[in-house]
Amino acid sequence: MKEFQKKVEEIKKKVSRTSLYIGRVPEKTKTDFIKLADIEFEKDYGMCLKWLMDFRNGLLENPNSVLSSRIDILAEEINQLKGLAEKEPEKEKKRKMISGKEI
Fold first, then answer.
1. Cα 24 to chain center, whole Å?
2. Domain ranges (residues) in the chain
3. How far apart are CA 87 and CA 47, in angstroms?
């Protein structure tokens, strides 16, 4: 019986070290978190929380910054194309042959 109690205490220490209990969470937030964990992380709440914290800490790229950088690249390419279109096309130079014929 003492061995069983010892094992239970060891398990409690391991679990309580990495467990997290949160109170006073708004219902919609809780529901959204659970849905996210279910869909993206196969109900692994710990990894879902880690992902959210990584996102918050900037380890994951902000989708808006990705779109913004792509828009900047496209705008630059458009400006370059406009610059090429505004240049006058070079007139073909006519060449004269010795006979006086122009090509």
1. 30
2. 24-82
3. 56
Could you tell me the two tokens for 10? 């060891």
Closest CA to 49 of 16, 26, 18: 18
Residues of the chain with pLDDT under 70: 16, 59-63, 88-91
Cα dihedral 22, 27, 29, 33 in deg (nearest 10): 70
Q: Give me the pLDDT at residue 88, please.
A: 64
Residue-wise burial string across 13-30, b where 16 or more C-beta atoms lie within 10 A, e elsewhere: eeeeeeeeeeeeeeeeee
The values of phi and psi at residue 57, to 5°, are -85, 0
pTM passes above 0.70: no
